[in-house]
Amino acid sequence: MYMLHYAPDNASLIVRLALEEIGAPYHTVLVDRATRQQDSAAYRRLNPAGLIPVLETHDGPMFETGAILLWLSERHGALAPAPGNAQRAAFLKWLFFLSNTLHADLRQLFYAPRYVGPDPEMQETFHDLTAARINRHLKLLDQLGMDERPSWLSGTQPSVLGYYLAVLLRWSALYPTGNTDWFDLTAYPFLQGLAERLERRPAALRCAEAEGLGPTPFSQPTHATPSEGSAL
Ligand SMILES: N[C@@H](CCC(=O)N[C@@H](CS)C(=O)NCC(=O)O)C(=O)O
């Protein structure tokens, strides 16, 4: 039985989506962001970086969303082209691109003061540059979908990469709160299709229900209204 340390609408959502889609049994433990529980000694024993999520497994606690997704897909033989499949190379390079570039850039956009300090002008310049970079990278993914139509990016066949991207699209539409004009999902028709297809899947509906994400959590998201915890 897995144990997912989560906060609503945090990166733990991506892992929850994979667990639900795989059908693997798991429990959840709330990390209370309002009291910064991610900084507690107990949590830092699981993830010394103090970031959400952590997935406790029989091989020990795992952190880093991309690593957890890859591990789950291998362990369960699901949601990714298997080793030896010709699609695996492309899948892996884009999975790592999501993890170390797109997700990392979004973090910088959401937490700009942590990266550039308190100066509002610096923050605004940083925001604009980072937003432009993210939009360029979303265009690459949209073009990839249009040109090559890989099954793992289709949303018809779910994959850990598809769910990862769908949640990144969700956050792009919602954060930083009050400053989301930089993002327009309709500029990326292929990715919009991915978001719409994935959010209709029973696994996604169960996650949306569990975390209060509303009926269209990826394509037309609204802020989470969870029954416990908080997104920020
Ligand atoms: N590289 C990490 C990033 C995880 C991350 O950014 N988690 C956020 C929530 S979505 C978090 O823990 N934020 C709290 C903080 O930065 O103090 C991963 O992929 O798991």
Characterise the protein shown here.
This protein has 232 residues and is α+β, with helices and mostly antiparallel strands. It has a domain at 88-201: Up-down Bundle (Glutathione S-transferase Yfyf (Class Pi), Chain A, domain 2), CATH 1.20.1050. It contains nine helices and four strands; from the N terminus they run E-H-E-H-E-E-H-H-H-H-H-H-H. It has a four-stranded mixed sheet, covered by helices on one side. The chain is globular, with a radius of gyration of 17 Å. Bound molecules: glutathione. Glutathione binds at residues 10-11, 38, 51-52, 64-66, 103, 107.
Strands, total number: 4
The arrangement of helices and strands along the chain is EHEHEEHHHHHHH
Order of neighbouring strands in the sheet with most strands: 2-1-3-4
CATH class of the domain at 88-201: Mainly Alpha
Helix coverage percent of residues? 40-55%
Question: In short, what is this structure?
Answer:
This protein has 232 residues and is α+β, with helices and mostly antiparallel strands.
Topology record:
Layout: E1 2-6, H1 12-22, E2 26-30, H2 41-46, E3 54-57, E4 60-63, H3 65-76, H4 88-110, H5 112-116, H6 120-148, H7 160-174, H8 189-199, H9 202-211
Parallel strand pairs: 1-2
Antiparallel strand pairs: 1-3, 3-4
Helix pairs in contact: 1-3, 1-7, 1-9, 4-6, 4-7, 7-8
The structure holds glutathione (GSH).
Glutathione binds next to helix 3 and helix 4.
